[in-house]
Amino acid sequence: MYVLAIDGGGTKTKGVIANENGDIIAEVTVGASNPNSVGKDDLRNELTTLFSKLKEQSNMSIFQISRVFAGMSGVEHPTARKEMQILLSSIIADRIPITVNNDAITALYSGTFGEPGIVQIAGTGSITYGINKKGELDRVGGWGYLLGEKGSGYALGSQGLDAAFSAYDKLGEETMLVNQIIDHFQVRALPNIIQPVYQAKNQKEIIASISKLVVAAADQGDPVSLAIIRQNALYLGESISCLIKKLFTDKWNEEQIQVVLTGGLFNRLDLLQHTMREVFQKNHIQAELIIPKVEPVIGAVVAGLIEEGIGISQIKQNFKA
User: Fold this and answer.
1) Are 12 and 32 in contact (CB under 8 A)?
2) What's the pLDDT tens digit per position in 58-105?
């Protein structure tokens, strides 16, 4: 029995074919597949290329595949999921069961291997997502950078820029972010960054990249940067706590809940976890923080195996989790 698993995002899309033991038979990476940022023709081309290369690499007949599980960004709405499912069916085969879900579920399962829990994604954007023992799904945040998206690289970068301009205008506290941002953009004065930022097509990514400067300044003891990081760590702790209370209503204060942490922000978990644990303690929550040791696409493999009736204990044994 084989499953075809896909982890699709706004930058790249990874697909694998795996057997029931979790052994990877084929592995291919192509371009972006978020339907909100990629045109329909480009989306079809990327997914067609993915499938063709997987089939070629595995030297398998498509009908040896029992299940397709695709964890995709940009398919939060049921209509978007259905459209993606129809597209995949037209590329792969109508006879093969295809499940399309939010990419957060694959991120979660890359840490819990099918068990219930919470996943906190904190990269350029941010979302808190989870599933309980009843299979009920819920989320907090992740509403897009125009609506704030606290606890993300974009939030750190945006707040860092705001603090730098406040310091430049003498409205706010002095911060080394001013000089760091000037050096980063290779300009003579802070206002000179306005034109390149506003004219850029990838404004979101440019602003999110400032988060690295905030982290660097925090490492040097800059009080403003440390305050920005603490503010976002508080939000992450509150967001996780909120979702745990919503999904685990009867057990949240009695048992340890698995919380999977993914995204670039958690490369510096050392700057975040103390504040996050303060919030958990205040809310009487026992959270087991997990940094996944496998890629999100393995979470899609896990989800596919579960849908094919493989037990979670067997999956964990196969992956030595």
Assistant:
1) yes
2) 988 888 999 999 999 889 889 999 999 999 999 998 889 999 998 999
Q: What is the pLDDT of residue 321?
A: 66
Mean pLDDT for the stretch of residues 188-216 = 95
pLDDT exceeds cutoff 90 at 201: no
Assign 3-state DSSP to the chain and report helix, strand, coil percentages, each to 5.
50, 20, 30
**Percent of the chain at pLDDT above 70?**
99
Residues 12 and 52 in one domain: yes
Structure tokens at 95: 């006879």
* Same-domain check for residues 266 and 138: yes
Residues 278 and 302 in one domain: no
CATH of the domain at 36: 3.30.420.40
How many other C-beta atoms lie within 10 A of the C-beta of residue 192? 12
Q: Which of 93, 45, 61, 9 is nearest to 300 (CA)?
A: 9
Rounded CA separation 281/251 (Å): 16
State whether 70 and 211 are in the same domain: no
Instruction: Of 180, 182, 277, give the one whose Cα is nearest residue 220.
Output: 180
pLDDT in tens, 120-178: 999 988 999 999 999 999 999 988 888 878 999 999 999 999 999 999 999 999 999 99
Task: Give the list of residues 6+ apart from residue 229 with CB closer than 8 angstroms, or none.
Answer: 156, 214, 215, 218, 271, 272
Task: Round to whole Å and give the CA distance between 218 and 224.
Answer: 8
Whole domain around residue 88: which residue ranges?
2-96+294-318
For residues 277 and 234, what is the distance between their CA atoms, to the nearest angstrom? Answer: 9
126 CA to centre of own chain: 7
pLDDT of residue 60: 85
79 neighbors 15 (Cβ within 8 angstroms): no
Please indicate, yes or no, if residue 66 is contained in any of the structural domains: yes
Q: DSSP class of residue 309?
A: T
Helix boundaries (H) for 78-202: 78-91, 103-112, 153-168, 177-185, 194-199
